[in-house]
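DM between two lab members

TW: hey, do you still have the TetR family transcriptional regulator C-terminal domain-containing protein entry open?
JB: yeah, one sec
JB: this one, 200 aa:
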Amino acid sequence: MREGQRAARRREDVLAAACAVVAERGADATRFSDVTAVTGVGVSTLQYYFGSREDMLIAVFRLSARMDFDQVTARLEGETDPWRRLVVIASYLTGAVGSDISWRVWVESWRWALRDAGLRAEVLGDYTRWRELLAAEIEAGVRGRAFTTRAAPLDVARQALALIDGLALPVVLGDPAVDRDAAAGLLIDALARLTGRVQE
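TW: and the structure you got?
JB:
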């Protein structure tokens, strides 16, 4: 591996660790020194990698969004059934499976996007990408007669994202009435209704 590649890999490893720090402390409370404490990378190196603390946080938001999409894409490999593909995407996005670190970072990115027009455009772009992915799966399900909805796939995708957001929040906040299992059950039931899933 070349020196430039090693440096890029190291920077990304530091960012991944910073994601966990932001999820735990919140973006406003995250400092270079907090990231140094968990990575062992000096503050001067962090400044070299990112410039300002704010630039580091925006890089964290970008990495987290990219990693989420990459992980979902990997989970979809080899899966051809539209319903199961839809459940994989939606379950990941609600935090009904795995860690809620990415959701906590996602919430932090929303907060920052309210004050930063450039980041807002990126967050909305990420949201559009998820909506289009869901719409494509819904459209495939309708074509394959797995779903019976007559609504526009993009509209169903918007409704599905609203459902996902609504279920993810109590999961992330630790609501005892809506744990991961409860969220997964509610999610599957509502998605089946939205898509008009044909039971096998």
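TW: got it. The radius of gyration is 19 Å. Residues 96 and 181 are 7 Å apart (CA to CA).
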